[in-house]
Design brief:
Layout (H helix, E strand, L loop, with lengths): L8 E4 L8 H16 L5 H22 L6 H15 L6 H8 L11 H8 L4 E6 L3 H12 L5 E4 L10 H11 L6 E5 L2 H10 L2 E5 L15 E3 L2 H8 L4
Parallel strand pairs: 1-2, 1-4, 2-3, 4-5, 5-6
Helix pairs in contact: 1-2, 2-3, 5-9
Length: about 230
């Protein structure tokens, strides 16, 4: 592991890292698909939807037509994935279904290990989520008092745009290497490392890392491993 003694703040990705997106959303997806008489499984639909949402976010940033927000890219990706599978839904059905995002839950080991990590570090949300949406999730779903909640919306682009990572360090009043980006999304760690932040890859899904020089400073399976690694000298 790289020497991380200069790190003062942990900046956490939320969706898929702190919050269990698949576990939270697939029951709603399964119910919706059964109502539509679809043959695709909820798990397969979720994978397609998740990949399409990332593409929507990349397009949003690259075209620079105005940051449309996390939930809007999720909605557009949902409509696209319906079409991909020969399904349709009217706008009211889509709006009703998207309310499922308000019910996201954290992975079971998250909160206990945030408590452990708070003894040494400033704990910060750094997410592509919309500000009001993040406020709801932090207060009502994660139920942990982070030191800061920073939305990419306020910085005008989705991660992994450099403005998000550099802007977060500026908001925190810290040099880039004093921030450790914690994410289960490898592109997020790559983006942070390319900007000069440190990076922790929480490989919850047992996926390969990118073929890049911007490797993580540490890789763990979950937040228990993250806390044990970072606090091993205590």
């Amino acid at each position: 592991m790289t020497d991380l003694s200069l790190v003062q703040a942990l900046t956490f990705d939320v969706f898929g890292t702190v919050l269990d997106l698949g576990g939270s959303l697939t029951p709603y997806i399964d119910r919706f698909l059964r109502q539509k008489g679809a043959t695709i499984s909820a798990e397969q639909f979720w994978q397609q939807w998740r990949y399409r949402q990332r593409l929507e976010q990349y397009q949003d940033t690259l075209m620079m037509l105005g940051h449309s927000g996390y939930l809007e890219t999720a909605r557009r990706a949902f409509v696209y994935t319906l079409g991909l599978n020969g399904l349709s839904a009217d706008p009211a059905e889509v709006t009703e279904f998207m309310a499922a995002w308000q019910m996201l839950s954290p992975f079971p080991e998250v909160v206990a290990n945030l408590e452990r990590l708070s003894s040494r570090y400033k704990l910060v949300v750094l997410s592509n989520g919309d500000p009001d949406f993040l406020a709801h999730l932090v207060e009502n779903r994660i139920k942990w008092p982070f030191d800061e909640v920073i939305s990419a919306t306020t910085l005008g682009a989705f991660k992994p745009h450099p403005a998000v990572y550099r802007g977060a360090a500026r908001i925190l009043g810290l040099p880039l290497p004093a921030c450790l980006m914690v994410s289960a999304n490898s592109f997020d760690v790559v983006g942070a490392r390319a900007c000069g932040l440190r990076g922790a890859f929480v490989n919850r899904y047992d996926l390969p890392y990118e073929d890049t020089v911007y490797q993580p400073d540490l890789a763990v399976a979950d937040f228990t491993g993250l806390a044990e690694t970072l606090l091993s000298g205590d």
